[in-house]
Structures are given as C-alpha cells and as structure tokens.
Amino acid sequence: MTAALDDIAPEAIPQVHRIESTDIETAEPMVAEMLHSVYPHEQVYGEYCTLHGYVDCPPRQLYDYLAHIRSLEEWTYSLRGLTVTDTPGLWQGYDRLGADTEVYARVEANPDAMTVDYHCAWDQGAHLWMIYLMRVVDAQAVLDRPGSVVLWTNCRHPFYDRNPFPAAAPAARDGWVGDYWDIFYPGHLLEMHNLKAIAEYRHSHGLPVTPEWVRGA
Amino acid sequence: MTAALDDIAPEAIPQVHRIESTDIETAEPMVAEMLHSVYPHEQVYGEYCTLHGYVDCPPRQLYDYLAHIRSLEEWTYSLRGLTVTDTPGLWQGYDRLGADTEVYARVEANPDAMTVDYHCAWDQGAHLWMIYLMRVVDAQAVLDRPGSVVLWTNCRHPFYDRNPFPAAAPAARDGWVGDYWDIFYPGHLLEMHNLKAIAEYRHSHGLPVTPEWVRGA
User: Fold this and answer.
1) Do A197 and B16 touch (CB under 8 A)?
2) What mean pLDDT is predicted for residues A27-36?
3) Is residue B89 a part of any domain in this protein?
4) Is the pLDDT of residue A217 over 60?
5) Residue B1: which pLDDT band, with cuts at 50, 70 and 90?
6) Would B175 be classed as within a structural domain?
C-alpha cells in the first residue's frame, strides 16, 4: 500500500469526493447546494455552539487569564464564589442563574496549544459533563493583526436534555441548566463581550490582565 | 484588590453585563435580541469559518491520522503530492484546484490538547498565512458516546482578499485561493464528510486509521 486510499475500494466509500473521482464541474453544484444565504438557528447552534471573538490583548496574557479558573467570576454572567475543595483541582462555586445552585469545576489548560477547557457541572462534582472548550489563537498569525482570537465551543451533551442527578438538585429550584441550551449562543456572546471588554481595558491601561486575586488562592 | 473587577471602575466598562449589575430581568431581553430563527451566511461564516463533525473513530487514532500531514492527500478535495523540502518540517505539494499551484505546508500538532494546525500557503513557503485550526475532542466526554468530535476553524486572514505575493503565482492561473472564501463552509463540509467516511471505514473494518504510507516518508 503506497498511495492514498489504496486500502479501501472506491465503491465502499461513495460519499468521499476527491478531485480524482469527482471533478470540479461535478463538485461545484454539490458545494453550491450546501451554500445558503441564511441558516436556521438549529442548524448552526443546535448540536454544537461555537463563538469566535477578537480581543485586543496579547494572546499569552489572555490565555494566562483564562487558564486561572477564578477569571470565570469576572467575565461570566453568573458563576461566582469559587473555592477549592478537598479534591485536588476541583473547585466549588455557585451559578446564580439557579436558586441555591452549586457548580463544580476544574480547568484543563495547555500552554503550548493555548487550549483552556472548563469541565463543570451543576449540583455535583463527581461527573463534570458540561465542558467549555476554549482556545486562544495569536491574531497576528491568523488575522495579520496584534491581539487574540478566542474560539469557544460547547457540545450538546445529552445531560442538557435530562438531569442525570435529579436527587442532587436543590428543592427550591425548578429549572435545569439544559433549559438554557437554546440561548447558549446569545448568552455566551454576552459573556464573550464581557471577556473582551475586561481584557482590553486592562491591557490598554497597563494593568495586569490577570489580577492578583484571580492568580492567588 | 481582593475581588472581581476591583481594579476597573464600572462606568469604564458599561458594556460588561454581570448578574450583580444587570439582573436577569434586564439581561433576558438583551439575550433575546441576539437570538434569531435564521442567521445570514455572512454573520456565521464571514470572518471565521468553523465546522463541527462527529466521527465514529477513537479520538487518539483520529488525532494521530490528522497529525500526519500526508493524511491531507486523502481527505482533502485537491491537496496532493506532498514531499519534504530542505526546510525541516516544511512540505511542498500541489493544490489541484489551481493550475500549476504549489502549496507549502507544515503541521503543528499537540498530542495533549489534540490540536492539529496546518500552516499553509499557495505559491510560496516563506509566509504560511493560511492556517487551518483543528482539534479532536473525545466524544465520550462531550457527547456521552464513543468516538471523536472534530472542530475545524479558519479565520479570514486579509491575504485571502489580496494575494500578497503576486509574483509567485504561476502565469497560467487566473484565480486566487481567497476567491473560495465564500464557499469555505460547504467546501470544508465536503472534506469533513470525506474525513468521516475514511476514518469510520478503516476503524470499523479493523484497518489502521493511519496507513503506512501516510505515517512513513
């Protein structure tokens, strides 16, 4: 086997379109058919919800801020009061969107790829299934300008549709985090704007992007 | 300074909305205003183009495949004939979409974050400004099912709108890679389907997801 797809008979994967088998004249209408002037909300944000943002702040500084989990208390709308737990790396706080709602969270950050993943859950810390996948990219490389591009993706885990741990929910609360899935795009956009405003203010005023209280603990 | 945003006067960042200053009743209509039943192509894919795909193939194997740059010769529509150059890590091949069009490319992959970035350019290898940002995510974690989620983002670098090295273009070619930006979404979707079909076929048939010829060289 010395060349592309030598191990697969072409008729076994008819849905594969490569220039050798599907010439440009054939591919063009296929591509045109997938192109639309508008796309429904459900198609764009139904199963995955990705936001992109430009932030006029050096990427390493923005990454460092995000990688400190307490930054969430600043730029998110309602996640507050994070304190360490007895489990290394696991924090406990509150989502003030829900009455008496505890949030558990840990961060997995990679300084080389500048990925920052927040693994979270409402009510319990044993299974952190709400995963916020973020990445900081050097805008000089991808947009030819100083600053950062922030990518932020959530995937629609089935637990958004059914609370897997109903016994852990506080009695006073009648909602569930998954009730908000349909407004994740605008809700996260509001938070992306928070992140942008806070980081840009600090960077442009010579303040540390990551304040001591976020770094400390 | 011991608490959130202690270093910034609230009136300096009026665009920041947090539950303390913008209560839920006030935030709800703001969020509702950003929510639409349809979104124009330009808003969704104008400056950034992100695709998401589910692939029924273990994430480590899919990452390994993508991290080998010659996999591009299989799942892309028209990138072919990659060979090593005298510059370590830099490959040279052809984009058969354009007449006599050379492509230069290198891959930056991070096995811990499972990011795979292809840094590419048409015609010259000195400035690789076309950056394909990909990431493989464990679908068990984010979707509660085996397999992989693939995230793929391109950012609209200004060179898409104007060829920065016109002298390097072959005489026979009248187009430019940026002419395709408006069809990146459907074009990349076709390629995402290729990737899915190839990886799923190999995984389900017990074949190595990364064949020897892709791994070798």
Assistant:
1) yes
2) 97
3) yes
4) no
5) low
6) yes
CB contact under 8 A, B19 and A158: no
Q: Is A17's CB within 8 Å of B187's CB? A: no
Interface check for A143 against chain B (CB to CB < 8 A): the answer is yes
Which range marks the domain in which residue A73 is found?
A: 41-215
Supply the CATH number for residue B144's domain.
Answer: 3.30.530.20
Which of A16, A143, A212 faces B157 most closely, judged by CB atoms? A143
What's the angle, vertex CA B202, arms to CA B143 and CA A117, rounded to 5? 30
Determine contact: A211 vs chain B, CB below 8 A: yes
Residues B213/A1, Cβ–Cβ less than 8 Å = yes
CB contact under 8 A, A27 and B77: yes
Asked if the Cβ–Cβ distance from A186 to B32 is below 8 Å, we say yes
Q: Is the pLDDT of residue B112 over 70?
A: yes
Residue A199 is assigned to a structural domain of this protein = yes
B210-213 own/partner pairs: CB under 8 Å, 24+ apart = B210/B61, B210/B64, B210/B65, B210/B68, B210/B71, B211/A1, B211/A6, B211/A7, B212/A1, B213/A1, B213/A2, B213/A3, B213/A4, B213/A6, B213/B70
How many distinct structural domains can be found in chain A? 1
The verdict on A90 touching B (C-beta cutoff 8 Å) is no
Q: pLDDT at position B28, please?
A: 96
Chains A and B: how many Cβ contacts under 8 Å?
Answer: 228
The answer as to whether A156 is a domain residue is: yes
* pTM greater than 0.95 (yes/no): yes
